[in-house]
Amino acid sequence: MEKKLYHGAAYYPELWDEKVIDEDIKLMKQTGINVVRIGEFAWAAMEPEEGMFDLSFFKNIINKLYDHGIETVMCTPTPTPPIWFTQGHPERMYVEKDGRVMGHGSRQHACTNHPYFRLKAELITEQIAKEAGSLPGVIGWQIDNEFKCHVSECMCETCKDLWHQWLEERYGTIEQLNEAWGTQIWSESYHGFEQVPQPGHAPFLHNSSLSTMYQLFSMEKIAEFCDEQAEIIRKYSSAPITHNSSMMFSVDNERLFKNLDFASFDTYATIDNFPAYLINSDLWRNIKKGKDFWVMETSTSYAASLESYASPHPNGYLKAEAVAAYALGAEGFCYWLWRQQRSGCEQPHSSVISAWGKPTAGYANVLEVEKMRKEIEPIILSTRPSQAELAITYSDRAKAFFKTESHRGLNHRALLVDFYEKIVSLGIHRDLIPEGAGLQGYKVLLTPFIPYVSSELVTRAKQFVENGGVWIVGPLTGGRTEAHTVHTDCALGNLEQTAGAKVLFTYPMDGSGTIGRAFDVSAPLGMWSSVFEFDQETTVGLIEEGLSEGKSFITEHRLGKGKIVMLGSMPLGTEGDVMLQKLVDHYSQEANIVLRTDVTKGTIVAPRKGDGYSIWFVINMDGNGGSVTLLKEGIDLQTNSVVCPGKLEVGKFEYRMIRINEMEGI
Amino acid sequence: MEKKLYHGAAYYPELWDEKVIDEDIKLMKQTGINVVRIGEFAWAAMEPEEGMFDLSFFKNIINKLYDHGIETVMCTPTPTPPIWFTQGHPERMYVEKDGRVMGHGSRQHACTNHPYFRLKAELITEQIAKEAGSLPGVIGWQIDNEFKCHVSECMCETCKDLWHQWLEERYGTIEQLNEAWGTQIWSESYHGFEQVPQPGHAPFLHNSSLSTMYQLFSMEKIAEFCDEQAEIIRKYSSAPITHNSSMMFSVDNERLFKNLDFASFDTYATIDNFPAYLINSDLWRNIKKGKDFWVMETSTSYAASLESYASPHPNGYLKAEAVAAYALGAEGFCYWLWRQQRSGCEQPHSSVISAWGKPTAGYANVLEVEKMRKEIEPIILSTRPSQAELAITYSDRAKAFFKTESHRGLNHRALLVDFYEKIVSLGIHRDLIPEGAGLQGYKVLLTPFIPYVSSELVTRAKQFVENGGVWIVGPLTGGRTEAHTVHTDCALGNLEQTAGAKVLFTYPMDGSGTIGRAFDVSAPLGMWSSVFEFDQETTVGLIEEGLSEGKSFITEHRLGKGKIVMLGSMPLGTEGDVMLQKLVDHYSQEANIVLRTDVTKGTIVAPRKGDGYSIWFVINMDGNGGSVTLLKEGIDLQTNSVVCPGKLEVGKFEYRMIRINEMEGI
Amino acid sequence: MEKKLYHGAAYYPELWDEKVIDEDIKLMKQTGINVVRIGEFAWAAMEPEEGMFDLSFFKNIINKLYDHGIETVMCTPTPTPPIWFTQGHPERMYVEKDGRVMGHGSRQHACTNHPYFRLKAELITEQIAKEAGSLPGVIGWQIDNEFKCHVSECMCETCKDLWHQWLEERYGTIEQLNEAWGTQIWSESYHGFEQVPQPGHAPFLHNSSLSTMYQLFSMEKIAEFCDEQAEIIRKYSSAPITHNSSMMFSVDNERLFKNLDFASFDTYATIDNFPAYLINSDLWRNIKKGKDFWVMETSTSYAASLESYASPHPNGYLKAEAVAAYALGAEGFCYWLWRQQRSGCEQPHSSVISAWGKPTAGYANVLEVEKMRKEIEPIILSTRPSQAELAITYSDRAKAFFKTESHRGLNHRALLVDFYEKIVSLGIHRDLIPEGAGLQGYKVLLTPFIPYVSSELVTRAKQFVENGGVWIVGPLTGGRTEAHTVHTDCALGNLEQTAGAKVLFTYPMDGSGTIGRAFDVSAPLGMWSSVFEFDQETTVGLIEEGLSEGKSFITEHRLGKGKIVMLGSMPLGTEGDVMLQKLVDHYSQEANIVLRTDVTKGTIVAPRKGDGYSIWFVINMDGNGGSVTLLKEGIDLQTNSVVCPGKLEVGKFEYRMIRINEMEGI
């Protein structure tokens, strides 16, 4: 790809006639759309009858767009196999946990593990890659679309067999599985892998190991399918490959993107939950570290389907979203979708242009984005997003553990976004990094809500600490083994031993009237908690009231040049928020984190590095305006005037770009 | 039928012994019950073994009742096929959307489209018609019972085949279906009608066209069954035929009643929702225009089943319900049921007489009804209900569209009742008229909540407007095509062009902080909205705040001698109610509607026309008493005294009958 | 069993290695655990392959425990058939009402009525009984585990056949069934028993008789299975046999325990619902009258599974629970479970020892229990629980009627616990007695919430009344026949006639604004109500407002030396509670109940009888402390000091034991 900032939209030319397409291209040019994503549901248009391929329509479209200066991200259309694949073949279809076999008419209805699906997907993908792979307009590829957004783990017979194979590869012998899963419980024990059930109908809950492993199996299989697809494309095209994923889907993104070239994601958070939008940039920048990511789908105004709709964005918010994404590392910012659907089930979804070809309610905002994009493009292209000094561990495997063991209906993503929001409010720049990511350059690592911490992560984090880092672990981290069982050596296994902590016992503190005190704040404690032995040396948080009065819920352990801080419980309420922020603030100061500043709620700084200087993008996300503290004199790049250190104001949904020279670390 | 006012009850003599039946007849006479409805669930009693018919019991009952002055509405018993039909034949049974096949033991468990069901239904109906058709006691017929009250669209294999035939008849070629439904989306495209699925299991929503058309198919099929039944009866009986339907059931009442002789309905609204009771009379009077309708079922006090019950009516309310029904066009007012069930699943349901043969809690109210009936009978019989000058379009097809596309859980009936209540509160007499109804005699037509407006309706309404009528269209009207897709020429298609309106864009206003102003009222706007171009000439409602500030949400377009008023959005809250009422009031005055008067909330006027005079039935429905304004001197028919123009009081649940001479229009 | 107080825990040695087991035994001794329950899920460990039995592990465990002074309750492992039983045999599995066939991996997945299950269960039970029956450590047996806790009525083909047989045995001819169930309704009528469906899929509710009878059938079958198991064990062991049941499970406990030797139950109520804990002791003491019962399972702190958890007990509550149980008739007080599960789905559940072998959050409370147990053991062993003078009828059959006919979502157990709590608050000692229990020794009998009152119970209660007792009947009692139909002679059938009452009509009073007055209190009335004729002689509660103003809702009828008091309605709210308590208080005084005293809310008296003296255990259950009134001088057995009559204080969760000599009745 030529280096530029992309402003794009999903486009479905197969649904419209030539006149409309020509009109669309004209309107795209007027609007500033320089890239479209096409083809991800068009299997039937490409292979209307089994084995009869015709890619000419799409090749023509790609070329025509390119002739008008619009580039293309080409997709494989595998989420929607045509009727010739599905009709009369229930054995090829996705099967729900409750046994319902999916039929034709929506999407993701096929089992992506069925061998015939894999074969047909391979053939259509090869056709597309061969035909479109060398077209100059194709600047990237997207495999399939939103894997596992409507479905999760398939329960079909094909999956059953693959599950047994996967288990055999993982465990070697059935005895080892029995031991790892503790299947003597409730007489579950198996004599062979072929006996291990899928987690289907049962009078009560399944074994946690079974439930979690079936999720990991499913995550591995969809990644394997994605690998296969990417491999085919690479035979015919050098354009980089991605998938439009999300924190919400039933996939392991770290694994899924291992063999892809760049990260992209879809997001439809509304303004009242803007941290759920923002967290994506801080995560996906690190899923493929060093590579720019794409916002592959977001709404111009509101997400909707036949049965629901979100509230529309206020004017100005879309621009704030876009500038935040670009500043935090996005190369592309794309809408779903260009032209409103006239049929299907997403007609009400917002778009750039209506089904009758007119500007929509969000259109003026799209123009604002384009104006901004042009303004910032040279600044973005000459800088790189700054690496944060504080990292938060992100794990889709943890998401699977929480799906199996939800405690009291906890949702992993919601927990994480809440936690993330507290860091954002502190004005500390941060990375979300996958479990397996290197820790170079970080000063503080936070690892909350990860029931199983691999020994590999413990080893890596230990080294990080020994070299001077601070590792803050918890809450809800470390209490489960790889197989989703309870440790039998101590509460938190290897982690506890590495930290040198001593957990007395664990229990759910909700409703138990427990109050903890740390950093001069007292707050209620909740969620499943580890209670530590009180020790003058290590205790940082003390339980003042409740069953464990006098014991400890935060401990601090020196290791080499750094510290491991164990957070055993979840501080709750307003006071709990303050306590958590004080904790992070305390260790961030101790670790000498400098890439931070005061921000008012709803306003953020996105820092980028140039050669010998930094750029701060200061952006108001909540529509209330706000300010940040500038630590050193800078230059406002919009006015080219000097800005003094101190309070820097930013208006409702506005952004400012401040260039700061030679400032250390920022 | 001899002309009289009927006061009746559902009766199940097949469940009781002769002694009880004799006692029942005696009690009916004492109570004033002059008609019973029998037989609708008695198939097993009439044909205990397949092909062994015995109607003698029912013939004897009908004759015995007749001998005691009680007439009979005879039913076909098809909602409850006997065990010989159902046992061992899952292929004959109704199949739920989720695939569950119904079994024996409740009702509506058979697929009414299965050919063997149709055959057996034909045979039993023929037997009944032949045996009972000429009995003097039989004054009417009811086909089946509450079609589609417990079930909606069957998913069985029979229905699948019929669905394919129906589609072929509707679309001719599969290409036309593909085009109409836009099936290229998500690679749904079909090569033949036999490939089109029923809207069963899918990972996400089905194509809107598929979902809506399957409902229309189902509605057509049940009407076709009803037609077949009626045709058989007519061979043997000249008594008029009806069906006890409802706005709630999954039927198209306009179509269903096309080949029936008079309308009847069941209603169990409670007093706190009395407009939901009242709306029925204003609707069913127009489903078979010019024919009196029947309240075929209502409770004496409360509806109930094993799992739930409503609160009992306060004393006096039953009489208010009955007088309102008679005055608004009912010929019959009937209870479900005469004698409390001793078995089954509706034992707790209120009745006239308990299972042990004693008066129930509601009995005194039944006596009040009878007293009232006697009093009003000569007045009712010598007059006819007045046609309203204001009509509201009613569409069960719209109900199907809303079931497919519920926006945010909207319910068509609830929307309509709320809207209706506002007209009632204004004291304007009104008709609810089916989509296909003629518009003669109306001055104002309201068409809210109808996503698809047929070109036929547009044409008819246009003519109505050209002749001087005011057509108020919206909210939520016109945005969808016949196939439940989005228009591609403009937002509202033909309607928009006919009105000469210009929709800029459409979007959901809920939660967007939009304020509209019209008729000197400012109110929040919500629901899916059409925003119109501002135009000094046409704008009546202006958007003061929100994304579309300065644009228009109500426009007015002159056409011939009349106007089309486009209502693009839903005014919300108390202020929204005021705005809607001011809108209706404004155009009602402009259109010179005279059949109206001031009423206090909870009190209504039901106007009837005699020869050279009108009768106003003034009825308090809410138990708080109230008043109406009498526009001209009249005569109180209960006291035979003159009543002066001005405020006319009516007590708690009381009614007054005022005769007014030669008053124009009323 | 040697006479002692047991303090025990559920133990799963099959899940742990020898080293852990040895450590466990050491810790049990330290903790004071003198009995364990083992084996109830260990079928796979005992019969790993079909027909290959090996009980040596368990025999060794039992002997080893015994050598260390720990006795054993041995279980049959039938809730969890191994994979060789379940795999590939869907026909052996439990089938849900919605048709879902259970698979392997949880528990209660087999149909307990399948002949092959019965055979295999017989064989494993015989093996266990033979091998372990004569071991000195085995002091008791538990059949299976928590019958029907996760499942209720199986819908498999085996059950279908047995259902038909059961019906034939019950009704003799299909005509009698048709008549009893009133199946002419909705053409349900059957020609043979093989036609009667199970209550599966239907568009609406099933016939109440069908629904209720299917539950009774299921309850009988599980009891029959339990009988079979017990019979086998008795061939090899003289140790007494029990089952760990609950009020919550879908069983008829009176029937289930008929052929067992002692009662035991599981309970996990939290402190905020402590009456739901307490009610068990007052019930199970009477399920096997004269025999001590066991609390077979309760948590040391909180119940939990992967998906939920309760709040932990406050410190001190566990001891209060235990002393209440022992004082009210328990011989054993046992935890679920000794060592936290490391695998499965109940890892989060509280235990005595963690999975890593350390004391849990609840451990200190377990030590408190043991200290208390030692202190009270001689006092308990030399006394017996006092029989109450007031009894409340308990019926699991009524629970089945409420499941069929829930009125408005009523739950039988919740109704009963609420009612029970009012008696507890009055300080009246009480027994909950099964329907068939003798009434000797009682002065007042309360029979609320029992829709069907058998003529046998009426006869027995009548005799009780004639001999001077007061029978308070209602609310919601007596309105249904044995077949769950409505009476046709009068509202309450035999009961009404026996009482000499006259019910005018019945209806649901909720939301009807009805106010009743009795015992100088006015209160709203609700729930399904019987309204009685007003009669100066018999009326005790008068309806002051509402549809039935001037009629009666409580009546009193002299019969012999006693009275039948009919309570037709449910007094609601705070005033309703006062009225109900005044009613009970009034008749308790009239009947001269002396086994009572004033208690503050949350504090109870558990009275026991010795030879010429009583012991009052005064226990604070709610953690707020409280007092009771001592009617006569006594001796505090903890301090050996005299306590004067009057107010006796008890601290937070504390207990006192007061010995009172020769006090009549107490």
Number of strands of chain A: 31
Q: Report strand order across the widest sheet of chain A.
A: 14-13-15-16-23-22-21-18-19-24
Helix content of chain A: 25-40%
**Approximately what portion of the residues of chain A adopt beta-strand conformation?**
15-25%
Apparent shape of chain A: globular
Low-confidence stretches of chain A: none
Q: How big is the Rg of chain A?
A: 26 Å
Q: First CA to last CA of chain A: what distance?
A: 29 Å
Largest sheet, strands/sense/barrel of chain A: 10 strands, mixed
Oligomeric grouping of the chains: homotrimer
Mean pLDDT of chain A: 97
Q: Total helix count of chain A?
A: 17
Task: Summarize the structure in words.
The structure is a homotrimer of 666-residue chains. Chain A has 666 residues and is of the alpha/beta class. Chain A is built from 17 helices and 31 strands. In chain A, strand 6 (244-245), helix 9 and strand 7 form a beta-alpha-beta unit. In chain A, helix 5 (115-132) runs parallel beside helix 8 (208-236), helix 8 (208-236) packs antiparallel against helix 13 (396-404) and helix 11 (317-327) packs parallel to helix 12. Chains in contact: A-B, A-C, B-C.
What are the key terms here?
homotrimer, alpha/beta, 17 helices, 32% helix, 22% strand, globular
Task: Offer a concise description of the structure.
Chain A is built from 17 helices and 31 strands.
Topology:
The structure is a homotrimer of 666-residue chains.
Chain A: E1 6-11, H1 18-31, E2 35-38, H2 43-46, H3 56-67, E3 71-75, H4 83-86, H5 115-132, E4 138-142, H6 157-171, H7 174-181, H8 208-236, E5 241-242, E6 244-245, H9 253-256, E7 264-266, H10 274-287, E8 293-297, E9 304-305, E10 308-309, H11 317-327, E11 330-335, H12 363-381, E12 384-385, E13 390-394, H13 396-404, H14 412-426, E14 430-434, E15 444-447, H15 455-466, E16 470-473, H16 493-499, E17 503-508, E18 515-518, E19 521-526, E20 528-532, E21 539-545, E22 552-559, E23 562-567, E24 570-571, H17 573-590, E25 603-609, E26 613-620, E27 626-630, E28 634-636, E29 641-643, E30 646-650, E31 655-661
Parallel strand pairs in A: 1-2, 1-11, 2-3, 3-4, 4-5, 6-7, 7-8, 8-11, 13-14, 13-15, 15-16, 16-23
Antiparallel strand pairs in A: 9-10, 12-25, 17-20, 18-19, 18-21, 19-24, 21-22, 22-23, 25-26, 26-31, 27-30, 28-29, 28-31
